[in-house]
């Protein structure tokens, strides 16, 4: 029991010593040595030099030793493919062993060794094992097919393993069925249109039977697979639901969540007037609430999913507000998620309780949590009109605490409240103005300036207040500068006599002293407006603003539908489609909810009437902030479908990015609370300005002239394109954008006939000439080509913005690859 | 699926590293250490995405377990698996500590190879695993063919949690109804939220493959039986049957041995139990909870440098029962300079390091009342921020189930062996504990 000593060997000449021990005659000593090797491997030391010696220990009766050697093999076989062959014989022999545990061990390990030559030898034993009399061997072999497919998909198809795997779905042993389902689902993911799983009522029935009998993990595999099935009609849908609901009482939360996924998806097909539909809705609430008594990590996963479920079907949990109250010692990630759900569930019926809670939270310690709580109070005011007054007075109480970040957060939300209920709560402005000096965050400063500008006529010293901000104009963030500019123009239009000097000052600051194009453009627009037609200026700048919508942070409906299909998975935790964080072909396939039962609208409409505005199709603004998050956090995202409803203002945000104004994109992004979007942005001249921006910069996509060229990165992996590897970068030479490509032939045969085509992208980039690859590319040869690009191609907004999708073609087969343009 | 699994000590040194998928490289081990374990700020999420790789982690004492993936895995499953992994390790070698992990690293690798195949969790019931993953490692040779196929059929079988051929001279079973009662009360004594989360833990020492049936005073079952009877009205049904009042269970979940479809259709709980100790069911109730204690706080600020606190606790259960291990924790402000406490019962102490007055009472009978009063001296501060006034929390243990749950029966049938339900010795015990039992002040 003192295996820990193996972790402490750090002497020099250690490898040499180990080598001697591995070759020792004494079995015990050998085993000790292998243990030491594994310990070193764990810690990250390179012990690959011992490969032959360790492999020599493989021929042993000692199962423990054998497993250790296998572990070593799995780690190092790839780096020593030739020597790994030495192990093949033992594997093949073990696959014939009398002991099923050893047969399974051999086939399991062999599948983990990613060496082509070994893979070749794997086929025969695997074929036998798939038909083994022992279920333990069969269930291991089933997973092994998925392993082999990952190494060499073609081989699996050629050898007919897929058919054998499909047969295993009808196996008598539930665990074999479960593993076969898991393997098939994984393989099917990389062949989106293959219909590999071939789910039909018969197979579904088999799966549902196996569901009752297999392990908790097997149940998850089967439920996740069921979720991808599309029932033929509502009756089939109902009968599957009936057989899945018992899973809601499983102790394993993952089983419960996967069952919820199936039900949420199939429910879509049930007519809403069906009794069973109501029963099902009722059955869903208790298990979801029970998930909140799981361990905190699982609670977090559950809460992220509940957040989706509440948006899709608010009726399920509408009476369960209390369970989302925050407990004092919940981990912070649980607290923040609970808060989100509380706001979503807030309604006239429970608002008093919710407000009392939120007020409590606003006095806690964690800054993020407190801020979110304060913001939540504001959101309640906007969501539940009856509570607005109470919310405002709560916010004022909080402002009196003088806690800096609380005050700032409160001011930001009060501005939103003004936008929702104009001319109602302006009496509080005086209190707000008292706190002017303590505001140090851009968002709060911008909000306060907006308030002063908007209500300039009611604030006696508005000009003084704004002037005080003007002193440090150049040190302010863009967000504040833009607000200040607009606010002073508003003030001037309202009180032209006293503020002429002020407005001239700000216009000159914005247009002459600033190098921010957004600010400059806006400055010029105002200037020209004011100088040509003050009446028109008044109409534009002081135009009546539309009221802001009830909920501003809802997930955009098509994305929500997709995420509902991914309940329980990482996508539902990140609230992002799998394509945003999964590389390669996997998961790029978009999942959709089944079409609504009946004739869509007609069944939908009565319900809208019932549950009020929360069900009405919300006008969601796709949050640019998230998009940007993608860009910054996740280095490379494969293409996704375009954002469905791009609004004009968002397009402008997109163009801002071209100008390098990352800041302003952020500004626009945070403006998902639409109030942050100043009035001018919505008006016609501003759009013109934005377009002007685009034209000015049309030639300037990419980097400043003669500047840095990013090193080439791999855009297309050889394994995904029959041996053609492409790496590349973008450069700009003599004002022309060029794409530098390195094409490498990693296949066995010569490649010819290259061509390239660009898919539509955000910048309208297209090749200016054909791809010039003169010579045929022989195996292992690399060729460098430069392709001049023009920006005259069709424009389509991509996510992320600088994503570029190209099609590389050779020998009539096209390969799609994408790359990021670094601006 | 899970691409790799790493175990680290508190310093971030890797103790176990097992990679299942080709897309996870060695650098993932370091990425997690640098970005999470060594991160300056507190961990804000149990799921972290670093360079398109997702890390799921749980912590046990100072040991980090991290599962890594590059795919869109079932996140709930990954966490359930990590917990299960902890259970399995605990069942094999006790507490999860650096020492124990290092001492058993070969065993852990063997387990990891068995319970996770290509990142897909496989049978991870300790009962089954222990039949063929032993610390001797040589068992393989001494098994007969029958034994081997018995192992494999158990591991893959429908009853993966129990092996055949178990024999006890004395057939015995223990049922523990363990409940934790949670409360959040406003200073005015209004119940903001209260619920009981309960577990039924069973220790079974039964021969053969016994078929068990468990019954409790579930309102739905009792009402149904009431309707089946001849004269009982629905309202009176509570008096029928076992003569006990029934309880409304909000939701319950079961160990995988319970036949869920049968519960769904008939609401009967039938199963073949694992051998030894396991958790049969979990449940949650929110209606008609017996709150064993009520806390009445009174906090008065006397000027800027003094607080007066008075807290009364009242026990609310049968006078013949005794509550134990009672502890009341009264938070004090950070700028406390001194505290004077007077209590009628038990011992009370001001613990400066925990910023709280801790009042402990060993035992207290039902329907009693006790009081503590304290004077808290404060240092004058310029801090504008008000004291957050954390809630007063309470701990206790009572010998009854606050939800009102009662075990009505646990019947055991084993047709192949010659023992009957009457021969089985059965023990039932009820323990109610405080969960998060807080009163705001």
TrEMBL record, chain A:
It is found in: Endomembrane system. Keywords: Acetylation, Membrane, Protein transport, Transport. It holds the Pfam family Alpha_adaptinC2. InterPro entries: AP_beta, AP_complex_bsu_1_2_4, ARM-like, ARM-type_fold, Armadillo, Clathrin/coatomer_adapt-like_N, Clathrin_a/b/g-adaptin_app_Ig, Clathrin_app_Ig-like_sf. One of its GO terms (cellular component) is membrane coat. Residues 708-816 form the Clathrin adaptor alpha/beta/gamma-adaptin appendage Ig-like subdomain domain. Residues 581-622 are annotated as: Disordered. GO terms for molecular function: clathrin binding. One of its GO terms (biological process) is intracellular protein transport. It is a peripheral membrane protein. Its main location: membrane. Belongs to the adaptor complexes large subunit family. PANTHER family: ADAPTOR COMPLEX SUBUNIT BETA FAMILY MEMBER (PTHR11134). This is AP complex subunit beta. It comes from Cyprinus carpio (Common carp).
UniProtKB/TrEMBL annotation, chain B:
Coiled coil: none annotated. PANTHER family: AP COMPLEX SUBUNIT MU. GO terms for biological process: endocytosis; intracellular protein transport; Wnt signaling pathway. The keyword Ribonucleoprotein does not apply. InterPro entries: Adaptor_comp_med_subunit (IPR050431), AP2_Mu_N (IPR043532), AP_mu_sigma_su (IPR022775), Clathrin_mu (IPR001392), Clathrin_mu_CS (IPR018240), MHD (IPR028565), Mu2_C (IPR043512). Belongs to the adaptor complexes medium subunit family. Adaptor protein complex 2 (AP-2) is a heterotetramer composed of two large adaptins (alpha-type subunit and beta-type subunit), a medium adaptin (mu-type subunit) and a small adaptin (sigma-type subunit). It is found in: Cell membrane; Membrane, Coated pit. This is AP-2 complex subunit mu-A isoform X1. Residues 170-440 form the MHD domain. Keywords: Cell membrane, Coated pit, Endocytosis, Lipid-binding, Membrane, Protein transport, Transport. It is a peripheral membrane protein. GO terms for molecular function: lipid binding. Component of the adaptor complexes which link clathrin to receptors in coated vesicles. Clathrin-associated protein complexes are believed to interact with the cytoplasmic tails of membrane proteins, leading to their selection and concentration. AP50 is a subunit of the plasma membrane adaptor. The complex binds polyphosphoinositide-containing lipids. The gene is ap2m1a. Residues 225-244 are annotated as: Disordered. The keyword Phosphoprotein does not apply. GO terms for cellular component: clathrin adaptor complex; clathrin-coated pit; plasma membrane.
């Amino acid at each position: 029991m003192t295996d820990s000593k193996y972790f402490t060997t750090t002497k020099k000449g250690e490898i040499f010593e180990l080598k001697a021990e591995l070759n020792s005659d004494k079995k015990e000593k050998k085993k000790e040595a292998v243990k030491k090797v594994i310990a070193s491997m764990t810690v990250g030391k390179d012990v690959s030099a011992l490969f032959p010696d360790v492999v020599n220990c493989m021929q042993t009766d000692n199962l423990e030793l054998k497993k250790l050697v296998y572990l070593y093999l799995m780690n190092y076989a790839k780096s020593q493919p030739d020597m790994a062959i030495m192990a093949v014989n033992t594997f093949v022999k073990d696959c014939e062993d009398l002991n099923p545990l050893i047969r399974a061990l051999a086939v399991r390990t062999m599948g983990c060794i990613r060496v082509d030559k070994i893979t070749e030898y794997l086929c025969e034993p695997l074929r036998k094992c798939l038909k083994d009399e022992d279920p333990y061997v069969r269930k291991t072999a089933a997973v092994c097919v998925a392993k082999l497919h990952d190494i060499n998909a073609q081989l699996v198809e050629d050898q007919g393993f897929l058919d054998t795997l499909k047969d295993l779905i009808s196996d008598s042993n539930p665990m074999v069925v479960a593993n076969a389902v898991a393997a098939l689902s994984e393989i099917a993911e990389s062949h989106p249109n293959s219909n590999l799983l071939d789910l039909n009522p018969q197979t579904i029935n088999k799966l549902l039977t196996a569901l009752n009998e297999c392990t908790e993990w097997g149940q998850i595999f089967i439920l996740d697979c069921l979720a991808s099935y599309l029932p033929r009609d509502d009756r089939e849908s109902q009968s599957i639901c009936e057989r899945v609901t018992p899973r809601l009482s499983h102790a394993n939360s993952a089983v419960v969540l996967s069952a919820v996924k199936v039900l949420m998806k199939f429910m879509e097909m049930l007519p809403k007037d069906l009794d069973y539909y109501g029963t099902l809705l009722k059955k869903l609430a208790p298990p979801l609430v029970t998930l909140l008594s799981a361990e905190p990590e699982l609670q977090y996963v559950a809460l992220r999913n509940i957040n989706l479920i509440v948006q899709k079907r608010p009726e399920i949990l509408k009476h369960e507000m209390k369970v989302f109250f925050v407990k004092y010692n919940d981990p912070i990630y649980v607290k923040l998620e609970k808060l989100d759900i509380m706001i979503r569930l807030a309604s006239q019926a429970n608002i008093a309780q919710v407000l009392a809670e939120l007020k409590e939270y606003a006095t806690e310690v964690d800054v993020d949590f407190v801020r979110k709580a304060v913001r939540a109070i504001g959101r309640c005011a906007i969501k539940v009109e009856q509570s607005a007054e109470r919310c405002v007075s709560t916010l004022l109480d909080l402002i009196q605490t003088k806690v800096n970040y609380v005050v700032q957060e409160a001011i930001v939300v009060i501005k939103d409240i003004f936008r929702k209920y104009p001319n109602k709560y302006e009496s509080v402005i005086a209190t707000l103005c008292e706190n002017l000096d303590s505001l140090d965050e851009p968002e709060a400063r911008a909000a306060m300036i907006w308030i002063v500008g908007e209500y300039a006529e009611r604030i006696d010293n508005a000009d003084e207040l704004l002037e005080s901000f003007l002193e440090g104009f150049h040190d302010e963030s863009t967000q504040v500068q833009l607000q200040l500019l607009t606010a002073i123009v508003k003030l001037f239009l309202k009180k032209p006599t006293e503020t002429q000097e002020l407005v001239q000052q700000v216009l000159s600051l914005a247009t002459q002293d600033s190098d921010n194009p957004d600010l400059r453009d806006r400055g010029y627009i105002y200037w020209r407006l004011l100088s040509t037609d003050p009446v028109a200026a008044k109409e534009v700048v002081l135009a009546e603003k539309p009221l802001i919508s009830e909920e501003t942070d809802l997930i955009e409906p098509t994305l929500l539908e997709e995420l509902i299909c991914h309940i329980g998975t990482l996508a539902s935790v990140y609230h992002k489609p799998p394509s945003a964080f999964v590389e390669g072909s996997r998961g790029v396939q978009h999942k959709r909810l089944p079409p609504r039962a009946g004739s869509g609208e007609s069944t939908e409409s009565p319900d809208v009437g019932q549950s009020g505005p929360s069900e009405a199709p919300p006008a969601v603004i796709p949050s640019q902030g998230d998009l940007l998050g993608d860009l910054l956090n996740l280095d490379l995202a494969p293409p996704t479908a375009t954002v469905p409803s791009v609004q004009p203002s968002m397009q402008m945000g997109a163009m801002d990015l071209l100008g390098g104004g990352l800041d302003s994109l952020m500004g626009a992004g945070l403006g998902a609370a639409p109030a942050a979007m100043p009035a001018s942005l919505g008006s016609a001249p501003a759009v013109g300005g934005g377009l002007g921006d685009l034209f000015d910069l049309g030639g300037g996509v990419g980097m400043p002239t003669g500047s840095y060229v990013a090193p080439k990165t791999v855009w297309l992996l050889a394994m995904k394109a029959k041996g053609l590897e492409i790496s590349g970068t973008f450069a700009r030479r003599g004002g022309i954008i060029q794409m530098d490509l390195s094409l490498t032939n990693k296949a066995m045969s010569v490649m010819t006939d290259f061509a390239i085509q660009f898919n539509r992208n955000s910048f309208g980039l297209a090749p200016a000439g054909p791809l010039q690859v003169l010579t045929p590319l022989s195996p292992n040869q690399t060729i460098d080509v430069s392709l001049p690009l023009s920006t005259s191609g069709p424009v389509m907004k991509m996510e992320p913005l600088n994503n570029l999708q190209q099609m590389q073609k050779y020998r009539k087969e096209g390969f799609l690859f994408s790359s990021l343009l670094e601006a | 699926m899970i691409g790799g699994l790493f175990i680290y000590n508190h310093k971030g040194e890797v103790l176990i590293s097992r990679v299942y998928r080709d897309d996870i490289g060695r650098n993932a081990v370091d990425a997690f250490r640098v970005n999470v374990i060594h991160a300056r700020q507190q961990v804000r999420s149990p799921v972290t995405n670093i360079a398109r790789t997702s890390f799921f982690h749980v912590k046990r004492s100072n040991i980090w377990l991290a599962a890594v993936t590059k795919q869109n895995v079932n996140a709930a499953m990954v966490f359930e698996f990590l917990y299960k992994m902890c259970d399995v390790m605990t069942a094999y070698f006790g507490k999860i500590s650096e020492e124990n992990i290092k001492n058993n690293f070969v065993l852990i690798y063997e387990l990891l190879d068995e319970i996770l195949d290509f990142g897909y969790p496989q049978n991870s019931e300790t009962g089954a695993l222990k039949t063929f993953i032993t610390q001797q490692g040589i068992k393989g040779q001494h098994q007969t063919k029958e034994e081997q196929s018995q192992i494999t059929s158990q591991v893959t079988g429908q009853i993966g949690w129990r092996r055949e051929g178990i024999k006890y001279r004395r057939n015995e079973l223990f049922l523990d109804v363990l409940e934790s009662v949670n409360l959040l009360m406003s200073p005015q004594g209004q119940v903001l939220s209260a619920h009981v989360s309960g577990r039924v833990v069973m220790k079974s020492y039964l021969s053969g493959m016994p078929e068990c049936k468990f019954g409790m005073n579930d309102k739905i079952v009792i009402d149904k039986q009431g309707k089946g009877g001849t004269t009982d009205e629905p309202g009176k049904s509570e008096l029928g049957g076992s003569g006990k009042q029934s309880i409304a269970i909000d939701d319950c979940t079961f160990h995988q041995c319970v036949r869920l479809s049968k519960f769904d259709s008939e609401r009967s709980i039938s199963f073949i139990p694992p051998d030894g100790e396991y958790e049969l069911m979990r449940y949650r109730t929110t209606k008609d909870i017996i709150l064993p204690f009520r806390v009445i706080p009174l906090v008065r600020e006397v000027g800027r440098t003094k607080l007066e606190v008075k807290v009364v606790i009242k026990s609310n259960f049968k006078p013949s029962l005794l509550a134990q291990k009672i502890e009341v924790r009264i938070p004090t402000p950070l700028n406390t300079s001194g505290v004077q406490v007077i209590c009628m019962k038990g011992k009370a102490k001001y613990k400066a390091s925990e910023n709280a007055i801790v009042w402990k009472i060993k035992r207290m009978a039902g329907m009693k009342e006790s009081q503590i009063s304290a004077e808290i001296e404060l240092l004058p501060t310029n801090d504008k921020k008000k004291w957050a006034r954390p809630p007063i929390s309470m701990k206790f243990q009572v010998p009854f189930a606050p939800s009102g749950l009662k075990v009505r029966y646990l019947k055991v049938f084993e047709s192949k062996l010659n023992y009957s339900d009457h021969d089985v010795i059965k023990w039932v015990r009820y323990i109610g504990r405080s969960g998060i039992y807080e009163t705001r002040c």
